[in-house]
């Protein structure tokens, strides 16, 4: 006969080990990313190389994990110990992989808000692994595809703009080498998770409304990112403006505002 902790008041568990481990795994992944960004000279952005959607989603996932819904049974001690050891490794990929395994287990074993929180942690981990590891395996096709679309649009305005593989611009003056970090495929999964996280935090989510919000997110984000990439490829002067602290922070704020707006709409009853 298993003993449940249902008698513990809502939100007052003394130590919620699964939540501590999940937050620790997520924080380790973020800290390693920040250290890599700063060491590479990318400390001008307000988010220090982090997706603002990761931050929003992690906070919401932790809040939901502390909510209603107890595990069906205590998790195996060796799983807690193994994941806790893995998140001490100074590698974001290892931390995200450990979080994916651990949150996946708890998504199966829990109910109600805790299950939603575990699923959000799982989505965060998978999206982070996609951006940091898996996407790099398909870097050239992804970057070439987005550069092709951008090149076709820009060529209508400036015939001197040409696109070769993942390079776009005027070869005689200024060209942009499109990297995976700048593509829609890199950021959109995190944005979608952010919308879902905000929606679930605000209220009972209707699946059809959430789907509509995600479709609107995809359309708006693709268009906005193409405009941003167009500015980067237009000239050296526009590249400096868009890629500098003003442009980078403005785009970060736009992304956060878009996620909060659509998440609020999807979570409204």
Key terms for this structure?
3-stranded antiparallel sheet; 10 helices; mainly alpha; 2 domains; disordered N terminus; single chain; 269 residues; globular
Task: Write a short abstract of this structure.
The chain is mainly alpha-helical and 269 residues long. The chain is 70% helix and 4% strand.
Describe this structure in words.
The protein folds into 2 domains: 15-136, no CATH class; 138-269, no CATH class. Helices cover 70% and strands 4% of the residues. The protein contains 10 helices and 3 strands, in the order H-H-H-H-H-H-E-E-E-H-H-H-H. Strand 2 and strand 3 form a beta hairpin. Helix 1 (17-39) runs parallel beside helix 3, helix 7 runs antiparallel to helix 8 and helix 8 (207-234) crosses helix 9 (236-243). The longest helix is centred in the C-terminal third of the chain and has 28 residues, at 207-234. The chain is globular. Mean pLDDT is 84; it is low at 1-14.
């Amino acid at each position: 006969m298993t003993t449940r902790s249902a008698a513990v008041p809502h939100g007052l568990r003394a130590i919620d080990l699964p939540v501590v481990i999940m937050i620790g795994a997520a924080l380790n992944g973020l800290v390693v990313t920040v250290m890599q960004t700063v060491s590479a000279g990318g400390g001008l952005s307000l988010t220090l190389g982090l997706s603002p959607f990761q931050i929003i989603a992690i906070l919401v996932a932790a809040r939901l994990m502390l909510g209603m819904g107890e595990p069906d049974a205590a998790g195996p001690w060796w799983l807690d110990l193994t994941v806790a050891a893995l998140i001490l490794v100074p590698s974001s990929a290892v931390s995200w992989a450990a979080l994916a395994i651990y949150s996946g287990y708890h998504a199966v074993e829990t109910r109600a808000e805790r299950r939603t929180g575990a699923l959000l942690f799982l989505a965060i981990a998978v999206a982070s692994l996609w951006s940091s590891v898996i996407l790099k395996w398909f870097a050239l096709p992804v970057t070439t595809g987005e550069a092709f679309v951008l090149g076709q649009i820009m060529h209508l305005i400036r015939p001197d703009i040409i696109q070769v593989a993942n390079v776009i611009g005027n070869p005689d003056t200024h060209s942009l080498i499109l990297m995976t970090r700048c593509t829609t495929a890199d950021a959109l999964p995190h944005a979608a998770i952010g919308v879902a996280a905000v929606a679930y935090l605000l209220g009972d989510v209707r699946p059809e409304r959430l789907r509509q919000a995600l479709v609107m997110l995809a359309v708006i984000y693709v268009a906005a990112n193409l405009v941003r990439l167009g500015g980067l490829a237009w000239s050296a002067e526009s590249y400096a403006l868009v890629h500098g602290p003003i442009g980078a922070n403005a785009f970060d704020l736009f992304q956060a505002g878009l996620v909060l707006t659509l998440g609020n709409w999807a979570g409204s009853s």
